[in-house]
């Protein structure tokens, strides 16, 4: 607390704190902010004042500035649960989920009987795909506060996500009995309706939800996308496409200020420019891959592009008892930021050796063991579609690794990315415009081709359509490439899927037997997709797909 030593200063501080407390009690965050900001400019500070200014900034959507005030509040009171809770909310709003998780966990450790903190921690864990822990948090929240419709709605959402229809409907109906338009419960029921092909019910429920005015902008965009799915299910393809377009336009406008300058395509451009002119000599120099006595027998990277069948293949492979799969844990993401951000970093990566090389490998293996446990004697499959961009890092760190490159008809891939809602980051932002989606796909495929020419990579191309048409034959070919025996349990991969956390939009598809509905879906929208056909034509031809 920064106050003077005179009684006058102390009185001023006390009056300021009292005024802030009164404003916050009324829910008047704007007034609390004004008082706190005035006080800070006069040299006052401390937990209450900085927390109040942070809450005011948070209420107006200025989350980065809010976090700075919350940091100063925590300097004065490190174990203040309300401030930690506020930190979690701002980190969640910024989609920095790891930071949000840590903040809510710290708050829960200090105030374990706070139902709201448990609920919010559960929301973050669910977004991270940790459904079991998320469920425990929401159940804890309900045990602390029996009348908590948001928590029971969250349980409905988790149950729907993990295909437990009976449990999902029970929680949703419990919620709606208290709050008839609770958004998460209605969304969960609509998701179940879609999965059960009750398209009219899904459309009706979703339109009621949208009309309720209770959805935040991001949730509204997602609900519109699901309306599109319902319309498609009824064969109303033109209406479906326009609904997908409306959904994406809304999401794009919400996020334009975040990604107008910093976009995924920017990364692809500078990586392409660098490797087009680079001398591959240094990149082809490899060490022995490092000695890791606790590492896996085989190390596999499964990549390509989103919606190319990577999740399906991962689930098939993970049904083999000798294979451990990582579901999009982004273990390379932090290393990529260090080693591939800028020309100087790439130059350094091309000749990385010694301690720097071993340190990077150790960081990766530490993360892998955190998620997958003991890896010794196993086959590790690291699935992350956009690790395609990070192939130079893979080539240098793990020269013995094998790479499975997933392919699917480019038109199906791009349209699927356009219609599906991903958590928005600078790469996923590209999918909110149809032509941007196509250009992003083409640029990554082109970069992949350059990597194949410049880097020493052991790659198997795997076509989604081939696996659909000849499941066992193609999976056996993948097993041969990996160096592992076929296991009959792989035929029943769909029975294993409900028991694991699947974070990708493909969760619903891989939790049922293999089907062919995903082949040639683009034809239903051939007229709407005409603008992107010239962009994708070279890749359609290169990968051997029919023109029509």
Describe this structure in words.
The protein has 548 residues and is mostly helical. The chain has a domain at 264-542: Rossmann fold (3-Layer(aba) Sandwich). It has helices at residues 7-25, 29-41, 47-59, 63-76, 81-93, 97-110, 115-127, 131-144, 149-161, 165-178, 183-195, 199-211, 217-233, 237-259, 264-277, 310-318, 333-339, 343-350, 354-372, 391-397, 410-419, 434-454, 464-469, 471-482, 493-496, 507-510, 533-542, and strands at 298-303, 323-327, 379-383, 402-407, 459-463. It has a 5-stranded parallel β-sheet with strand order 2-3-1-4-5, with helices on both faces. The protein is globular and about 75 Å long. Residues 1-6 and 497-512 have low confidence and may be disordered.
């Amino acid at each position: 607390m920064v106050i003077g030593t005179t009684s006058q200063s102390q009185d001023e501080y006390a009056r300021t704190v009292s005024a802030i407390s009164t404003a916050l009690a009324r829910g008047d965050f704007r007034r609390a902010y004004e008082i706190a900001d005035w006080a800070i400019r006069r040299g006052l500070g401390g937990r209450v004042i900085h927390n109040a200014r942070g809450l005011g900034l948070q209420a107006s959507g200025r989350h980065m500035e809010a976090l700075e005030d919350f940091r100063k509040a925590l300097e004065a009171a490190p174990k203040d649960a309300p401030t930690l809770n506020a930190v979690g909310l701002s980190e969640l709003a910024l989609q920095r989920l790891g930071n949000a998780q840590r903040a809510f966990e710290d708050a829960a450790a200090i105030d374990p009987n706070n139902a709201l903190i448990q609920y919010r921690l559960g929301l973050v864990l669910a977004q991270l795909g940790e459904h079991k822990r998320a469920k425990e948090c929401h159940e804890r929240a309900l045990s602390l506060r029996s009348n908590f419709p948001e928590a029971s709605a969250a349980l409905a959402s988790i149950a729907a996500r993990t295909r437990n229809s009976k449990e999902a409907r029970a929680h949703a109906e419990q919620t709606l009995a208290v709050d008839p338009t609770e958004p998460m419960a209605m969304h969960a029921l609509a998701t179940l309706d879609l999965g059960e092909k009750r398209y009219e019910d899904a459309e009706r429920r979703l339109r009621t939800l949208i009309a309720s005015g209770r959805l935040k902008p991001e949730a509204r965009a997602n609900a519109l996308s699901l309306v599109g799915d319902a319309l498609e299910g009824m064969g109303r393809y033109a209406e479906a496409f326009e609904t997908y377009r409306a959904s994406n336009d809304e999401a794009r406008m919400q996020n334009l200020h975040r990604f107008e300058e910093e976009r995924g395509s920017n990364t692809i451009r500078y990586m392409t420019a660098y490797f087009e002119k680079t001398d591959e000599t240094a990149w082809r120099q490899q060490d022995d891959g490092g000695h890791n006595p606790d590492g896996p027998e085989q190390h596999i990277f499964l990549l390509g592009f989103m919606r190319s069948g990577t999740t399906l293949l991962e689930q098939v492979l993970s049904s083999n008892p000798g294979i451990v799969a990582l579901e999009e844990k982004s273990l390379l993401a932090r290393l990529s930021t260090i080693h591939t951000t800028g020309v100087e970093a790439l130059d350094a990566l091309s000749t990385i050796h010694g301690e720097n090389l071993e340190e990077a490998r150790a960081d990766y293996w530490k993360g892998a063991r955190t998620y997958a446990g003991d890896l010794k004697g196993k086959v590790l499959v690291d699935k992350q579609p956009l690790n395609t961009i990070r192939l130079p890092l893979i080539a240098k760190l793990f020269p013995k690794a094998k790479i499975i490159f997933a392919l699917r008809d480019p038109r199906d891939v791009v349209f699927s990315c356009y219609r599906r809602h991903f958590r928005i980051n600078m790469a996923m932002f590209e999918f909110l415009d149809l032509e941007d989606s196509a250009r992003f796909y083409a640029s990554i495929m082109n970069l992949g081709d350059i990597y194949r020419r410049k880097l020493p990579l052991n790659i198997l191309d795997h076509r989604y359509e081939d696996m659909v048409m000849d499941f066992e034959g193609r999976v056996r070919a993948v097993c041969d490439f990996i160096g592992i025996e076929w296991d009959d349990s792989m035929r029943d991969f769909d029975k294993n899927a409900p028991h694991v956390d699947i974070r990708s939009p493909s969760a619903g598809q891989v939790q049922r037997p293999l089907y062919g509905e995903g082949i040639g879906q683009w034809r239903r929208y051939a007229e709407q997709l005409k603008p992107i056909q010239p962009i994708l034509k070279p890749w359609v031809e290169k990968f051997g797909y029919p023109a029509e």
